[in-house]
Write a structure and sequence with these properties.
about 10% strand, Herpes Virus-1, about 80 residues, single chain, three-stranded antiparallel beta sheet, mainly alpha
Length: about 80
């Protein structure tokens, strides 16, 4: 998810997908209830959580690369 937004139904959606939905439907994609308005509000909490998760995953991947490189340098390929 790149740009999470909250719609009038209280659910979070990707902005581009929800804008496309709203272009064709005046209802919630989840409940099918008529939405009282079509304003989309940035969901900063979710956006921050996603950014934090991506950073943690990136750091873990970098750690694995360093660990793998160190392991390979200690163990020649024909012995692993």
């Amino acid at each position: 998810m790149v740009e999470p937004v909250i719609a009038a139904d209280g659910h979070t959606y990707e902005r581009a997908a929800m804008q496309h939905w709203l272009h064709h439907h005046p209802t919630s994609p989840v409940t099918q209830a008529l939405l009282p308005h079509t304003r989309l509000v940035p969901n900063l909490l979710i956006k921050g959580a996603i950014a934090s998760q991506r950073q943690q995953l990136s750091q873990a991947a970098q750690h694995r690369l360093v660990f793998d490189a160190a392991t390979r340098s200690q163990h020649p390929a024909h012995l692993v």
